[in-house]
From TrEMBL:
Protein name: Regulator of microtubule dynamics protein 1
Signal peptide from the UniProt entry: 1-19
Gene Ontology cellular component annotations, sorted alphabetically: cytoplasm; mitotic spindle pole; spindle microtubule
Subunit structure: Interacts with microtubules.
Subcellular localization, as worded in the UniProt entry: Cytoplasm, Cytoskeleton
PANTHER family found in the cross-reference section: REGULATOR OF MICROTUBULE DYNAMICS PROTEIN, REGULATOR OF MICROTUBULE DYNAMICS PROTEIN 1
């Protein structure tokens, strides 16, 4: 009997751990993202994709978290690797769910990140995609605050293109749709209405007001930030940026 028990115990040690289900991994990824452990969350979503390569939730989150992690990198080459991977995941997500608002949003974010580090030609090309996918995300979910933010960012970036970038846009595409500071501000304000806890939006809204010579409005927006609770991993940094911007304006 003792030998039987010993054998059973040894067999237990040899058995592989029970494989986690897709649902369990998705729940863990969601929890880790909420805990601001975004690299760990990204790895969980990648585990899902090893099991189920067409899982729309995992593809979308892998793209978004790659975009965020790329933004944290210091070197352009490292940023580019993350952003291109984010774009690839978003493209897969769109192949699975072309009308999914989150998939379209993920592509808009990835292309926006690519545009911010690209040269004039590639920046203009990526910029067209940012607008397209942000507008599709809004079409499929009109109350999508973060998508309104991306559209606002697009308007701001186009409104502030330098002469060389405007020349590239005209040469390549016959120009870009008009992007104005007024539209950027309206989009950022729409985002604030729909998602008042999205801290990054406050920073870019204040920048747009400042660029539009509405200093009082910029300061008013920035003074709201200290009361906001960090939700995403980079929110403490964004709050610090808002504080510094307000100090520099006074």
């Amino acid at each position: 009997m003792f030998r039987g028990l010993l054998f059973a115990a040894m067999l237990g040690f040899c058995l592989p751990a029970k494989a986690q289900t897709v649902e369990e991994l998705l729940q863990q990824g969601d929890q880790l993202e909420k805990q601001m452990k975004e690299v760990d969350a990204l790895n969980k979503y990648k585990e899902v994709l090893k099991i189920q390569s067409n899982n729309l939730t995992a593809l979308t989150w892998a793209s978004l978290l790659d975009s965020r992690e790329g933004d944290r990198q210091e070197k352009k080459e490292a940023k580019s690797r993350f952003f291109e991977e984010a774009k690839a995941y978003a493209a897969q997500a769109l192949a699975v769910g072309p009308n999914d608002p989150d998939a379209n949003y993920a592509m808009a974010v990835a292309m926006g990140r690519i545009a911010l580090i690209a040269g004039a030609k590639d920046k203009v090309a990526a910029s067209k995609d940012v607008k397209q996918y942000a507008e599709l995300a809004i079409k499929f979910r009109p109350n999508f605050g973060e998508a309104w933010y991306v559209l606002g960012k697009w308007n701001y970036e186009v409104a502030t293109l330098n002469a060389f970038e405007k020349g590239a846009a005209k040469m390549l595409f016959g120009g870009l749709p008009d992007g104005t500071l007024a539209n950027a501000i309206a989009d950022f304000e729409k985002c604030r209405q729909l998602n008042p806890g999205f801290i990054l939006n406050y920073y870019d809204l204040a920048i747009a007001y400042k660029k539009n010579d509405q200093i009082d409005k910029a300061e008013e927006i920035l003074r709201k930030v200290p009361a906001l609770r960090p939700i995403h991993q980079d929110d403490p940094k964004f709050k610090a940026n808002c504080k510094k911007l307000l100090e520099d304006m006074q």
